[in-house]
Specification:
260 residues; Rossmann fold; single chain; seven-stranded parallel sheet; 15% strand; alpha/beta
Amino acid sequence: MTDTEARAFLAAYGAGQGIGLAFARALAARGLDLLLVDVDGERLAAAAGSLGAGGKVATACIDLAATDAGDVLARALAGHEIGLGVVTAVRSLVGPFLDERLEALAASVDVNCRGVLVAAHVLGRALRDRGRGGLILLSSLAGLQGTGGVAAYAAAKAFDAVLAESLWWELAPHGVDVVALLAGATDTPGFRAHGPRSDDPMAFGSADAVAEEGLAALGHGPRAIAGEANRRTVAALARLPRDEIVRLTSEGTRRLYERD
């Protein structure tokens, strides 16, 4: 981060826990003013209260899947000078695509695609008008290829990554840097809620490490993969035929969540 002035920060739909909260902790430690956004008001209040010393902390309870989310988010930003936006919106579904209710799949797309689109549009305009700043959109390694067992999630995270890369080019002339941050399996409450087989937190990435790598990635290109092991895995898979990549990642996902 090159802008060391205290600026407002926004973690959209997710500042209350997981990677969004990890970003909030990292930026609070740097003394930045924070604007935290989450869909769960109680979780959001607990997160804000846990940050301790740092800059000022404001909160806004917003459902990015709502049809008026853009207007509500714009009103929440009024009076705050946004220098860095971090969008960690996620609603993941694990299991065979055709076994999911269509309504649940559509709701996940509303958050993972439409919600990210809304946040990026509102934040992007604020950053462009300011003439400098950064925007991080959280994506996933699952979005690098088709991934069975998380089909809708993988497709949505591919959307998020491509959106971020496109905005990296569009907003660069306005002094705004954009990064698609691709995380692997990360030890968060949301991830644990799906019951991955390993009970060892060390088997998965750290949310705090993902946040730090995301911040360090600003100014270094449109896409960053969090974690050295993940970077090595992606590089190794890239040498394989596409059908083999899809097969391996899908089988790995199935093993991660399969029940005895």
